[in-house]
Design a protein that fits this description.
Shape: rod-shaped
Order of helices and strands: HH
Largest sheet: none
Number of strands: 0
Structural class: mainly alpha
Radius of gyration: 54 Å
C-alpha cells in the first residue's frame, strides 16, 4: 500500500511539475509573442518607409537615366548642327574664293585692256599738241579696286553678321 501511495504521490508530483512547466512554458510563449509583436510594431513601419524610399530612389534613377539620354540626344543634334554649319561655312568660303578668282581674272583682263589703251594713247599722243602731263589718264584699276573692296566687305558682313 505504501508503494501505491508512493506511486500515487509520484504521479501527483509529476503532474504538478508538468503543470508548473506548462505554466512556465505558457508564460514564456506569452512573453515571446509580446516581444515579437513589439518588434513587429517597431520594425514594420521602418521597413515600409525604407521600401517606399527605395522605390522613390529607383524612380529618381530612372528619371535621371531618361534625362541623360535626352541630353545625349541633344548633344548629338548639336554636333550634327555644328557639322552642317561648318559645311555651309566651307561652301561659303569656296564661293568667296571663286568670286575672288573671277575678280582677279577680270582685273587681268582690265590690265590687258588698259595696256592696250595706253599703247593706243601713246601712239596718238605725238599727234596731240598738249603736253603729256596735262592729260591725266584715269586708271580703271582705281575703280575696280574700289568695287573689289566693296564686294569683299559685303561678302564678309554676310558670312560674319554683327553679334549683339
Amino acid at each position: 500500500m505504501e508503494k501505491a501511495t508512493e506511486e500515487q504521490n509520484t504521479l501527483h508530483e509529476d503532474k504538478r511539475v508538468k503543470t508548473k512547466e506548462q505554466k512556465r512554458q505558457e508564460k514564456f510563449d506569452a512573453v515571446k509573442q509580446a516581444l515579437q509583436a513589439d518588434i513587429k510594431a517597431m520594425v514594420e513601419p521602418k521597413m515600409k518607409a525604407f521600401a517606399a524610399e527605395m522605390k522613390a530612389m529607383e524612380a529618381e534613377t530612372k528619371a535621371m537615366k531618361a534625362e541623360t539620354k535626352a541630353m545625349e540626344a541633344e548633344m548629338e543634334a548639336t554636333k550634327a548642327e555644328t557639322k552642317a554649319l561648318q559645311a555651309e561655312m566651307e561652301a561659303t568660303k569656296a564661293e568667296i574664293e571663286a568670286g575672288k578668282q573671277r575678280v582677279e581674272r577680270q582685273f587681268a583682263k582690265l590690265e590687258l585692256g588698259t595696256a592696250s589703251l595706253e599703247a593706243q594713247v601713246a601712239r596718238l599722243r605725238p599727234n596731240v599738241l598738249v603736253p603729256q602731263q596735262a592729260i591725266p589718264t584715269p586708271s580703271p584699276f582705281g575703280m575696280a579696286r574700289d568695287i573689289l573692296a566693296t564686294h569683299a566687305l559685303a561678302s564678309q558682313s554676310r558670312s560674319n553678321p554683327p553679334r549683339n
